[in-house]
Amino acid sequence: MFFFSGYPLLDLSILAAFGLSIWAQFKVQGNYRKWSKVAASSGITGAQAARHLLDRNGLYDVPVEPVRGTLSDHYDPIHRVVRLSENVYYGNSIASISVASHEVGHAIQHKEQYSMLVLRHRIFPILNFTSGLAPLLLIGGFLFRWAELIGLGIVFFATVVAFQLITLPVEFNASSRAKDLMVAEGFIRNTEEHGVNKVLGAAALTYVAAALMAALELLRYVFIFIGMRNDD
């Protein structure tokens, strides 16, 4: 959904952020493919790395399960399960170990009640409600020139932006934990850290791009709303 705000610099910034998001997706896929072909010197698989790190952090009751798909890896905080795509689960590449360690980073955050993760979990039920209604409210407000409806849509969309912004420290922290753990446990050598940084750095860029685009879109809606109120 794209409505020009009447502020060329803002509209151009949003288009640039959208371009960054597309480029970040290509970077993620490209780096993942590249470093999936490079075996880690330790020879362990993503599943073994995840299991080892979970046990080292007292998370013996958190299972590691394979899941279909590519880059479908995630930590499920509801069922407390680390799920790894089959390539990561069975693979012994630098990419596999990096992704697996990152997901374990989320499990450790959960155990330690990392503040930003707790906040993200609390806002998620609200997001499920507001994210679906926000586009409908905004579209309806623009079509019928109803400023109050746009205002409500902006409030709802703000929760989406808040969620995106909260996600940034959660993801960066998980990657930082992953790197430290991988080095401490001898999963990678110093010469292999470059590959780890490429894999996890590209993934982090996608979250930055998404947050930036969402924040700029929110700003655009606010400007349009103010313009409509002034016209009235």
Automatic annotation (TrEMBL):
Name of the protein: Peptidase
User: Which segments does the entry list as coiled coil?
Assistant: none
Q: Where are the transmembrane segments?
A: 6-26, 123-144, 150-172, 199-226
- Which PANTHER family does the record cross-reference, listed alphabetically? MEMBRANE PROTEASE YUGP-RELATED
Kindly state which keywords UniProt assigns to this record, in alphabetical order: Membrane, Transmembrane, Transmembrane helix
- Superkingdom of the organism of origin: Bacteria
Q: What is the lineage of its organism?
A: Bacteria, Bacillati, Bacillota, Bacilli, Bacillales
Transcription regulation is among the record's keywords: no
InterPro entries, per the entry: Zn_peptidase_2
